[in-house]
Amino acid sequence: MKLRFGVDKLLGRGETGQVAEIRRLFTTLGFLTAKAGATALIGLAYWAVATHLFSARDVGLAAASASTGVLLATVGAVGIPLLLLAEIEAVDPQERRVMFTTGMAITSAIVLVLAIGTMALSPHLGKSLSVIGGDPVTAVLFVVGSVATMWGLTLDDTAIGLHRGAAQLWRGSLSSLLKLAIVGPLVLAATRTGTGLIFAWAFAMVLSVFVCFPMLALGPARPGEGTIGHRVALVRRFGKLSLQHHVLNLSIGSVSYAIPLAATLLISPQQVAYFSAAYLLSATLLILPYLIALSLFAERSGDAGLLHRHVRRTLPLGLALAGVIVLVVVIAAPYVLHLFGPAYAVNGTTALRIMILVGPAYVVKDHYVSICRAQHLMTHASKVMAIGTMAELAGAAVGGVVWGLTGICAGWAVAAGCEALVLLPSVLRVYRRAPAPALQEEASTAERGRVSGG
């Protein structure tokens, strides 16, 4: 063993391996960041234009529609987008198209039912959803937008799993550009309504998916594949793993959608607009620390040593970025919110300053989840995240009932901070301890067996 290590070191193999690991990790991170950055910048431009040309009530309705649609897509995904992200590259290339289309069909049907049910129950789901569901045209647009959001999520995760980051980059950028482009005709046609903004969201999502789907380059299926029997076999093969991903994803990811939904249910449409502007800015600024943690999972590391090395690279970087972002936002919040107009700066500054405080806590939380995924501890992580999610939602809900907009943000931030303190020791164990060589080999063997066995 020592002789082999010495030869590898002499030939530069160890260093080459390290460089390859870093290059692959940061290539994935680069595409994720490019897509997030492009969609964030264009999205900010869209909302800046919308808030100046449309009333706060209409902006609030559009924000409520989009955030609820994303929540329905998250619930209806049943783990399929994450399954595609994690497994599609290991599947036979001639089977990938069938796997993708099967997943799309299942998730689309589920989200369609959920969206129709949401509109049916909208009179009982708060002021914003009640208005959306009260108009048949707006309700139909909401349903279409929700299903298209599911399509976009599935396409993006598949592109990451296949290391075709350009597809998800263009899909997100095109969707954002189309929304911005549609605002002009709406204004010229004197259609400055919430329905017009919801149309822009739904149309942009649908068209972006259809334009960017060929970029996945899935190729043709084998003759005889794609039959109902073959699709059922795929569901049986991957169903359990997909549901494990889904439970874990709901446990952690639902907070990002449920907090805006709580705002939709607890405060007025005008306050929802102010909340959405602050939430959009905080989410945009904190996306890079999140993507750093997501890159750990995108690499699908079954190698404990590789995971240890990646965490030592990503955890300090994520915490440092989050700390700088918090400091900048606390100082610059009122100036940045002026992008949306004076009323947003007056009513959203405190909310933004409080919301940004979840950033460092979420670096720890996102690393914990990525580590558990890499170690195939999803059932355990789901239980832990479910408790944390309930705590965050409870904090936001109690705060919203008692103190309104500011209370939602404060309750969420306090609960997230407490959760991070509980999770930090588990993350630090992986950060500090390199696994023994024998354990690394055992883990790698188990990973190869898991993938080859489906």
Write the layout of secondary structure elements.
Elements: H1 2-11, H2 13-53, H3 56-76, H4 80-87, H5 96-120, H6 127-134, H7 136-161, H8 165-188, H9 194-212, H10 228-266, H11 269-285, H12 287-298, H13 304-337, H14 342-355, H15 358-374, H16 378-432, H17 437-452
Helix pairs in contact: 2-8, 2-11, 2-12, 3-5, 3-6, 3-7, 3-9, 3-10, 3-11, 4-7, 5-7, 7-8, 7-9, 8-9, 10-16, 11-14, 12-13, 12-15, 13-14, 13-15, 14-16, 15-16
Describe this structure in words.
The protein is 85% helix and 0% strand. By secondary structure, the protein is mostly helical. Helix 3 packs across helix 7 and helix 8 packs antiparallel against helix 9. The N terminus and C terminus are likely disordered. The radius of gyration is 22 Å and the shape is globular. The protein is built from 17 helices and no strands. The longest helix is centred in the last third of the chain and has 55 residues.
Could you give a short description of this structure?
With 454 residues, this protein is mostly helical.
Report the total helices.
17
Low-confidence stretches: 1-15, 436-454
Number of domains: 2
The helix-and-strand class reads mainly alpha
> What is the quaternary state of this protein?
single chain
Q: Which sheet architecture does the biggest sheet show?
A: none
Helix content: over 70%
